[in-house]
Design goal:
Number of domains: 2
Distance between the termini: 32 Å
Strand content: under 5%
Order of helices and strands: HHHH
Shape: flat
Structural class: mainly alpha
Length: about 90
């Protein structure tokens, strides 16, 4: 969200928030990589969660519209994360 609000890096505070957010995200991603053996698993969950969360924030804060294909796609991301957590050996 801060990236959109930074208006092409022309607004200082949203740009600083965006830089801090990216730094925090990669810090926590590295912490997750210490807890799980599979880089693919961690990155899949991280990317899927990011896509899902940013889509929801866009809908609520920027009035983005989502169509049936978007709903199906987001549902598949959530289902994929559930399947990875419950049934895949790479999550352990």
């Amino acid at each position: 969200m801060a990236l959109k609000l930074s208006d092409g890096y022309t607004k200082l505070i949203p740009t600083a928030v965006m830089a801090g957010s990216y730094t925090a995200c990669f810090y926590f991603l590295s912490k997750c990589l210490n807890q799980f053996n599979s880089v693919g698993y961690v990155y899949a969950i991280w990317a899927g969660f990011g896509i899902f969360l940013i889509t929801l924030l866009g809908i609520f804060f920027f009035k983005n519209e989502i169509d049936i294909a978007g709903i199906v796609g987001l549902s598949l991301i959530v289902i994929g994360a559930i399947v990875l957590n419950l049934f895949s050996k790479i999550s352990h």
